[in-house]
Amino acid sequence: MTKRATPPFRADHVGSLLRPARLLEARRSRALGEITAVELRAVEDEAVAEIVRMQRDVGLQSATDGEFRRTSWHMDFIYRLGGIRPTDEKIKVHFRNASGELDFESAALAVDGPVRLTETIFGDDYRYLSSIVDPDVTAKLTIPSPSMVHYRGGRAAIDPAVYPEQEAFWEDLSAAYAEQVRRVAALGCRYLQLDDTSLAYLNDPAQRSLLSARGDDADHQHLRYIRQINAAIADRPADLKVTTHMCRGNFRSSWAAEGGYDFVAEALFGSLEVDGFFLEYDDARSGDFAPLRFVPKGKMVVLGLVTTKRGTLESKDDLKRRIDEAARYVPLEQICLSPQCGFSSTVEGNELTYQEQMAKLRLIVETAAEVWG
To answer: Which partner from 95, 213, 226, 311 sits 20 to 30 angstroms from 187, CA to CA?
Structure first.
């Protein structure tokens, strides 16, 4: 086997990277009104250029902007959709880690107008990224999947005066996403990733109980989400590769859900029309590889075997053993390797250093080269 020429690549990564201190300081200064938006943008540009060079230097074939211009991996996108706004209410998500527990709070969202695309979200960010990558490196854009607009608030977040029937909401949401896909493709994007925690959360009985308690059909919610993602990407150009990434929460080295992919696997792998699946598989929390038996021929599986939740470096031998185990269920030629999630899904980042982050990415590149050539 040789290197893949199209995404996802044998050695890949999810998207977000640890923010440098000077970027965090510039964001604080901007919030206090001490610098202008133009000055902040200049700091961001410099930081993005440096992190793109780092990705090239460790040997990756793709590069993101590290999501350096965002506070959150998903809400920065969702709030820019027409018809959606943050509210004064708070959503609290309970997280756990090896040391204990913590809560994450963000503004709740309200759908109080027709959902539509009013701008090419992250369009300027992608233009800059694509302008600075080397010719042999593919610029990758990450956005939250349509599912995340619904999962955060459910039907209670949707104004019944705007959408008396839920089907109209879903149609508008997918249409807005389809237009976003069309626009980023027109900018030259050929690697788009839809990040989605909902499809992994739904494997957790505790999460399904929470959804049922708020009035959602938790047992069939994943089927609706799969249909809406498919509608959003159905008309993409043939050379635009789309992947989805699924994890069970990633905030300051903590997680929110547990459980293997068994509950959603048959529908997810068999019906979701993406080119590849980035799957969290860094510990027992993610279950075993048996659900991969539902992955059809031609779809890629990117095994997230390297954790971003701590700095300790995995061994190549352990990674190779786990790849061999996964290959019992899906052919080795359909497998790639990545971290289990981003290193900084929110601006705070996970609890490891820049050097540890870099070492993990280099480990992935080296391991992939030894496994696939």
So the answer is: 226
